[in-house]
Amino acid sequence: MKFIQTMALAAILGLPLAACEQQGPFEEAGEKIDETAEDVGNAVEDACEDVKDAAGAEDKDC
User: Fold this and answer.
1) Residue 52 neighbours by CB under 8 Å, 6+ apart
2) Distances from the Cα of 29 to the Cαs of 9, 52, 62, in angstroms?
3) What's the pLDDT tens digit per position in 15-34?
4) CA end-to-end span of the chain, whole Å?
5) Does the reported pTM lie above 0.85?
6) How many C-beta neighbours within 10 Å does residue 15 have?
7) The dihedral of CA 41, 35, 37, 19: what is its sign?
8) Dihedral of the alpha carbons of 54, 56, 60, 62, in degrees to the nearest 10
């Protein structure tokens, strides 16, 4: 009986770990949104630096 209880406890505690290994559609969508937001931010910063470079600004950081 003790063996069955131990195995049941191990299965219950292991379920959350198994669930974390696979990404669902919401996690994948969230990662794509994060990547897109980062890409847009990088593009805006690059454009800002290009404008400052064309204007001859001393400080080219945006």
Assistant:
1) 59, 60, 62
2) 33, 35, 29
3) 565 556 677 889 899 999 99
4) 67
5) no
6) 10
7) negative
8) -60
